[in-house]
Amino acid sequence: MNAEYDIIIAGGLLLSVSESVGIIENPVIGIRDGRIDLIETMKTGAGHSYRAKETLDATDCLVMPGLINTHTHLPMVCFRGMADDLPLMEWLQNHIWPAEAKHVNREMVYAAATLAIAEMILSGTTTFCDAYFYESSVAKAALDSGMRGIVCQGFIDLPTPNDPSRITEVAERFIEKWQGKSPLLIPALACHAPYSCSPETLSSIKDVARKAHVPYTIHVSETKEEVSIIREQYGKLPVAYLRDLNVLDRRTIAVHCNWLEEAEMDILSAFDVTVSHNPESSLKLAAGIAPIPKLLQKGVTVGLGTDGTASNNDLDLFGEMDTAAKIHKVAEMDSTVMNARTVLNMTTIDGARVLGLDDRIGSIEVGKSADIIILDTNKPHWIPLFNPYSQLVYAASGADVVTSIIGGRMVMRDRKLLTMDLPMIMKEVRKIAAAIGKDFST
Amino acid sequence: MNAEYDIIIAGGLLLSVSESVGIIENPVIGIRDGRIDLIETMKTGAGHSYRAKETLDATDCLVMPGLINTHTHLPMVCFRGMADDLPLMEWLQNHIWPAEAKHVNREMVYAAATLAIAEMILSGTTTFCDAYFYESSVAKAALDSGMRGIVCQGFIDLPTPNDPSRITEVAERFIEKWQGKSPLLIPALACHAPYSCSPETLSSIKDVARKAHVPYTIHVSETKEEVSIIREQYGKLPVAYLRDLNVLDRRTIAVHCNWLEEAEMDILSAFDVTVSHNPESSLKLAAGIAPIPKLLQKGVTVGLGTDGTASNNDLDLFGEMDTAAKIHKVAEMDSTVMNARTVLNMTTIDGARVLGLDDRIGSIEVGKSADIIILDTNKPHWIPLFNPYSQLVYAASGADVVTSIIGGRMVMRDRKLLTMDLPMIMKEVRKIAAAIGKDFST
Predict the structure, then answer these.
(1) Could you tell me if A252 and A275 are in contact, meaning their C-beta atoms sit under 8 angstroms apart?
(2) Which of A215, A335, A392, B394 can pair with A188 through a Cys bridge, CB separation 3.0 to 4.6 Å?
(3) Superfamily of domain A67-354
């Protein structure tokens, strides 16, 4: 007889994303104290039993690591569908920024982030990396809902430049407030972009992040225009500019990277900077297509992100994987690039690497945190199941996820959210949205 | 007191896709004898009631026309995920064609088509246009499951050319067999492509289609290589070649059209040929991106299709809409092209136009056939709901569809399929797939 586990998952198909564990048919996965403590093939015959407080039967299901969203602006769920199909700058300057200036506050951010977390859990995400304002409210939403999150307090020098010493203090205080608060929560810092932050802001915020050993995220070369702005202003390409400001290292996450020249890719590779690829947002905004296959060739670690819902318009990483796998094939006119396994890695183990959490999450291995999702595969679009990687990337949907465990705690079971009052949160965000809607209804 | 309806749908939000009906909050839709007989805003107060055999409460739901998939190869669900991320010709010649040669038969086509129909209904599709071999089995699957379908018997001269008089007879017999059999079923004809069919096959099959007043579908310029083949062989661009063979008219559906020159678009427009756009398949195969915004400017009617699941790998038109709306924005570097409404039209009224069925389906209007789907919008990714077109194209998922009515008959209610034995069909296709899998497992 084995010792007692908190949760046993038994049956179905385990896709571990771990090279050593591989794929196991009919697995038994034991979870204890938030961690994966046992992985084995189910023994048949009499006398084999596992004692557990809770046993999940995964027959006809696929068990895999929870998905990792490396770039979000969760509170922007309130702006979902508010202003679509517009030119990027009109969208940003005439719709998003004015709505943010008027409606973003502590309470809005908390309610919206909670709704966004519900949407993420319902579509298989167990870890996010968010950057926004009032980020303490995002942190609180994550804590309250049992979600794993990297919460980046955001900084931007538009419309008015910040006083570097003041924002340094704000950044330090934010990290102090949240560091060590929960094993699921990591505070971090974000500068909006090279074109929207002063050199002082870019480097002083990185200094704080470096001292605190936390991630630093920044939008890089999302649009062609941004590259021109930096070239004109500083006589350099954006990545070289950031290198010269000393903000590039293993803990810097460069988001988008749609317009990189080869020399910039080499810099990212040399400085071990990781990249968050958000294909759906960049397609929808007509921003561009990042040179991901080339970055991979150069050894850069790439994770996937959805970006905010105002430019996506959902937080479903299954859709994002499908798009990521397809768009580069046509961009390179080569159907062999970005194969299903490569793309699945981007939302699991490589996503974890981007966030510096690959020792804890991103695959199902003994000793790692129990961040696990279970998908119901007893559905027509799962038949036949020749290749689970292909199925997950090209055919699965977020709605296939039935159960989700984060850090050993069940947050969803049979599609019921266990850690939040969903009807109340939906009502709250609908109320906020009604106020936003009044501004642009005629 | 009103007369009795077969079905009343009451409440929620009606997105009719009809210019005259528009969007109605709190609608009442009455269905009688397979047709939409009543559309009005729900009257409040006492004394208002609607007598119906069945009443569907659509509170917190969106009601809209069922989606139309203008290009499928349904039986290929058996090859889903069998050979992904390969070069197109290797995929086709070393995997798909040999598997087809060995495993495609009447029984396989019936079982696979039924599974595919289940997948389509579960994701909101109510009409498909299919082209394959043993198409009578697809017709039978559609009839048995209450699905609306255009079933095209397919012709190809690879590996061996057909005798034109023999295939003419086959084509005529196929149409005779199915024409008038059911109001939901329309037999039609398909030639595989200009490069894979002889000129005699292309024109003799079109002659049969023309005499029978049925659609004629053909893959056109899916890859760049095909264009070169036709240019070399006939000294013309593919569309000009087809025009000169006299196969272009209002009932010809040109599928893919990824590599059209401007003069070819003008020919399609002049001959009123419609286009089936299958973006996900063409991305995945690295085949190309069709010039859809230009075709729309030239007044060509465009519908969406998923293509077969071997190159997609699902039959979910919601994902297809999302991809269609996004891919052209980045291809044209213009975020205003292919707005949500344009794309939604492609799976509804314009899809109906492509199939020549716009007098019957594609929108919710009195007198049209009751092909209606109901989506549950009481979910996080539906909040807020500023713009239902945006929501459907950019955020909704096939799994949001809860109820589906085709020709007045309920085929799905609360996600339960009512016209087929799903577990039995899944078991059957799994058995067929196991045999296919043996060929390529080591």
Answers:
(1) no
(2) A215
(3) Metal-dependent hydrolases (3.20.20.140)
B13: chain A residues, CB-CB within 8 Å? none
Pair of tokens at residue B228: 């070169």
Distance CA A24, CA A42 (A): 10
Placement of tokens 């966004």 in the chain:
A116
Q: How far apart are CA B381 and CA B221, in angstroms?
A: 37
Tell me, yes or no, if B288 comes closer than 8 A to chain A by beta carbon. yes
Decide: residue B2, CB within 10 A, 0-12 exposed, 13-18 middle, 19+ buried: middle
pLDDT at A442: 44
d(CA A302, CA A362): 13
pLDDT digit string, tens, across residues A308-359: 999 999 999 999 999 999 999 999 999 999 999 999 999 999 999 999 999 9
Q: What angle do helix axes B199-212 and B164-178 make, rounded to 10 degrees? A: 30
Classify residue B382 by its DSSP letter. Answer: G
Output the CATH code of domain A5-65+369-414.
2.30.40.10
Chain position carrying tokens 């704080």:
A208
Kindly report the length of chain A. 442
Domain boundaries, chain B: 5-65+370-414, 67-354
**DSSP-assigned letter for residue A162:** P
Q: What is the pLDDT of residue B64?
A: 98
pLDDT at A9 over 50: yes
Q: Measured between alpha carbons, how far is A132 from A144 in angstroms, rounded to an integer?
A: 18
The answer to whether the CB atoms of A330 and B116 lie below 8 A apart is no
Q: How many contacts (CB atoms, under 8 Å) link A and B? A: 226
What per-residue confidence (pLDDT) applies to A46? Answer: 57
- Per the rule left: phi > 0, alpha: psi between -120 and 50, beta: everything else, A218 is beta
Cα B418 from chain centre? 21
A254 forms beta bridges with A218, A275
Q: Is A391 an 8 Å CB contact of chain B?
A: yes
Q: Give me the interface pTM, i.e. the ipTM.
A: 0.96
Candidates A69, A383, A387, A428, partner chain B, best to mutate (most B CBs within 10 A): A383
Q: How far apart (Å, rounded) are the C-alpha atoms in residues A123 and A103?
A: 27
- pTM (2 decimals)? 0.97
Confidence (pLDDT) at B48? 63
Exposure string for B139-176, b = 16+ CB within 10 A, e = fewer: bbbbbebbbbbbbbbbbbbeeeebebeebbeebeebbe
Average pLDDT, chain B: 96
Task: Specify the pLDDT at position B359.
Answer: 98
Q: Which of A319, A335, A394 sits opposite B312 (nearest CB)?
A: A394
Lowest mean pLDDT among A14-18, A233-237, B98-102, B394-398: B98-102
DSSP string over B121-165: HHTTEEEEEEEESSHHHHHHHHHHHT-EEEEEEEE--SSSPPPHH
Beta strands (DSSP E) in A232-371 are 252-256, 274-277, 302-304
CATH architecture of B5-65+370-414: Roll (2.30)
Q: Beta-carbon neighbour count of residue B415 at 10 Å?
A: 14
Per-residue pLDDT reduced to its tens digit, B50-85:
899 999 999 999 999 999 999 999 999 999 999 999
Among B329, B327, B306, smallest CA distance to A324 is for B327
Q: Which is more confidently placed, B380 or B48?
A: B380
Nearest CA in chain B to A341: B85
Q: What is the pLDDT of residue B441?
A: 59
Q: Tell me, what's the pLDDT at A158? A: 85
